[in-house]
Amino acid sequence: MSETIQPKATIVIFGATGDLANRKLYPSIYRLYKSGKLDENFAVIGLARRGWDNDVIREKVEQSIQGLVDEDEDVSEFTSHFYYKSFDVTSTDSYNELKFMVESLEREYHTEGNRLFYLAMAPDFFGTIANQLKDHGLKETSGWTRLVIEKPFGHDLPSAKKLNQELQAAFSENQIYRIDHYLGKEMVQNIEVIRFANGIFEHLWNNQFINNIQVTSSETLGVEERAHYYDKSGATRDMIQNHMLQMVALLAMEPPINLSTEEIRSEKIKVLRALRTIEADKVSNYFVRGQYGPGEIDGEKVIGYQEEADALKDSATETFVAGKLVIDNYRWAGVPFYIRTGKRMKEKSTKIVVEFKDIPMNLYHKKDDLRNPNLLVINIQPNEGITLHLNAKKTGNGNLTEPIQLAYHQDAASGINTPEAYEKLLYDSMIGDATNFTHWDEVALSWEFVDRILANWSNEKPDFPNYASGSMGPKASDDLLEKDGFHWWPE
Ligand SMILES: NC(=O)C1=CN([C@@H]2O[C@H](COP(=O)(O)OP(=O)(O)OC[C@H]3O[C@@H](n4cnc5c(N)ncnc54)[C@H](OP(=O)(O)O)[C@@H]3O)[C@@H](O)[C@H]2O)C=CC1
Ligand SMILES: O=C1O[C@H](COP(=O)(O)O)[C@@H](O)[C@H](O)[C@H]1O
What we know:
Number of strands: 17
Pfam families: G6PD_C, G6PD_N
Function: Catalyzes the oxidation of glucose 6-phosphate to 6-phosphogluconolactone.
Strand order of the largest sheet: 8-11-12-7-13-14-15-16
Bound molecules: NADPH dihydro-nicotinamide-adenine-dinucleotide phosphate, ligand LXAUTJHC
Keywords: Carbohydrate metabolism, Glucose metabolism, NADP, Oxidoreductase
Helix content: 25-40%
Binding site for substrate: 181, 185, 219, 238, 343, 348
């Protein structure tokens, strides 16, 4: 049995009073601590402008993990590892004090000089922080130094390039960990294993046996408190450029020669390079967009996007996108990859459906009966598992068939709650495993792809809203598949 590596590190969180730190980072650090992946050799320094102190951050951390602790559990030993410093990232004076604080905690917690700088702040600050860390000698240490960057990584290719240049002036590519939290999800990580550890799938994983692949990530939530960010982003930048294209890359890549970070990334990059460029006047043949209007979700009436905030009135921002991707290589020629994502849809769910080619003729149905092609469904969330849809004999006399499903549920099999995506990614960044983080080349290729679509859309005024909250998006999304003779699989 392999031993769990217990990384030693000082974790510096920029944006420690924010939503991400509170909802994701503190609970993840706690889960790592509770599961023994972090022992006593760690300290966390929270930074933000607010006038908190060590007591306040410890109290906030305790509140943020409330749902995870056992009754009567004393979490004071855990929270005692947290420190806070009121800090304006734009003020150069603060960084000298930060250096002093980091060095003194390193001595106290024997973290061997390992430093993880987590930028849980608006991206406008990323370049400044990285350069200040370098200029103030915070990278000079006997241990490792890593920079974890939150999304969005730019707004388009030129801004992403500029940001990358700023970061690379201070940190090398192998020190930069760009978060795509979908890559931390258990079943997204399972895509490779399902494909490359199962002969029955990998031999069929090509254009001879697969009709199309569908990736759906639907949300029931609207923009909530993030209207300011979201209205400038939209679903294409928010979900397609990163999470959706990353899932497609994992589904379409060739088997890597080994499981090293470099080899896996190199195969994913080849997929992104093989994505067919969509010509400006053909965008509507491949991509459709939508924006939610009022509707009903789980029996509750909800308002439309444009009513969510005054600033959103008449907004042309897309809250839904569906697209057809064509991968121009030997394996995938002729196999469309359909993707769709949106807010305020019928259900919160992320799943992948692989539709296999049907048998040449069906002995068991009258010719005008519907056939049931075999499907492999990879359920990413909320349920984690895989389901294989087959046909079997209908019990009793006769030659009728009925669809059956072979299902595997992750939690039922492992008997444990799977780790949160952020928990895994935090751990990976501390042990130096960058496999599930995005390389700059992936970011750049993804922006190049979506920029063309966005440029085309920016020239046309869409007729929004065009789908009701609680639906599965606009009709155009169904039409996109229908014209190829397919439909979105509901399950
Ligand atoms: N929240 C989420 O679920 C997700 C967030 N992200 C990304 O994570 C990042 C953070 O998001 P989120 O936590 O939601 O944002 P918030 O707005 O909730 O938090 C921003 C943080 O930055 C701090 N801050 C702002 N200006 C300064 C400054 N000049 N100096 C020091 N600290 C400053 C704020 O604290 P104070 O006001 O006290 O200074 C606060 O702690 C963003 O890049 C976002 O896109 C990505 C995916 C999901
Ligand atoms: O990155 C983002 O992802 C979330 C959806 O993540 P999930 O893990 O809940 O599927 C999305 O709501 C958000 O707008 C986007 O920024």
